[in-house]
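User: quick one, fold this
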Amino acid sequence: MPTGPLPQWYNDAKLGIFIHWGVFSVPSFGSEWFWYNWRKGHNKHDQKDYIDFVDKTEKPGFAYSDYAHRFSAVFYDPDDWAQTFAQSGAQYVVLTSKHHEGFCNWDSRQIGTTWNWNSMDIGPRRDLVGELATAIRKPHVLSPQTNKQLKFGVYHSLLEWFNPLYLQDIASNMTSQTFVDLKTMPELYELVEKYKPEIIWSDGDWGSHSDYWKSKEFLAWLATNSSVKDTVVWNDRWGHDAKCKHGSFLNCHDRFLPNSTMNHKWEDCLTIDKHSWGWNRKSKLSDYKTTKELIDELVTVVARNGNMLINVGPAADGTISPIFADRLLGLGDWLKVNGQAIYNSRPWKVCDQDSKNRKVYYTRDDTLLYAHLTEWPENNRVVLNCPHVSNSTEAFLLGTKFSGEKSSSTNVLIENSYNNTHIPRIGEQRNEAEAVIQLPDLNPSNVPCKHVWVVAMSNIENLDETDLPLPQTLEREK
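Assistant:
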């Protein structure tokens, strides 16, 4: 598989937004696999739930394609979406161009095999992909946390469950590639040439080897001859032989979260709704991750050399539920305070998680070590095992106001580090491998943020030490 240097923008970005939107958003029942579950199902019990739902809500003789007429996107406001995503602190956005149902969310009419099954011929009668790409790239749409413009990317499914051309290839035991030649590859080339996405998020690869999908040929062109060759990144879902092995970044399976730092860049794609990628009208409040849970996972992911791609599922009319917006804006508020410990940071190879205090995760930059406290310590006192501090070590709680005396060296550090506060009484050294930090007394009027608090430390003696070679892949943390 073609590989190359990871573009710096992706390594620095740390957070992206995933959007699952399609005809499945109309029934908004169960999950985005509605059509498959209704027609086939993973088991008879699950299939019955979908059959019963359709029988109760639709007329006899109903076909899944009838839902497309109701995929209206009547309230779709890509400019509003773009502003919400920018406020969340995300640095890139990945929209579903086509899910496994095969419906194309862009003007795919020139391909010739998507007649009446695309967003221009039926339903919205709008180029949903093109409109969001334009909105994301408007000069005034900047992340308030980094003052950078967001990157735009597309999700694309290689397979389509019930496409006759794909079923024909399956019947030939994948010895024919009619579906790939007439559908999959023309779509991918068109998406790149028309919308210039800087992320290609492939899926639906499990049906065959990368040779069947002609993945190597496409990625070679993408990396060397396409208009985005210098900035584009792609994942590892290009055939069952490529998953978790080849890609600019790896997302070995959905909600992938290794239990330690990985050497290869990876991505944790996860949902705010714990059970569905698409909008599900049946979801209860308890089915959604809290802002605290999302921030904890973001900290863990970044500490282990990953990015987090957090999914929202819009409704068929183009609205995004307030609960999704609430979670995204909660993330954004936290990142406004603690962004310097996330963006542009890198993992600390000595420790990603403190060996004594497992509620503490670490990131670093060129000079500072950041300790992310996922719980506020009892008596404002935290004991750390990994950092080796000295008499010259100083520490700062990100986001608080300083009210005491500062040395000149500390003043320079603060001015270059979001004007943060020096914490008194740091560096009480009990033994060679233990540091005690006394945090300041805070109250609701001056607490810098909610959920997770970050201590920045300078002059850490073992900041540049390296640990054993990092593993390439690990199983998800239990």
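User: anything notable?
Assistant: The chain has two domains: 8-341, 348-458.
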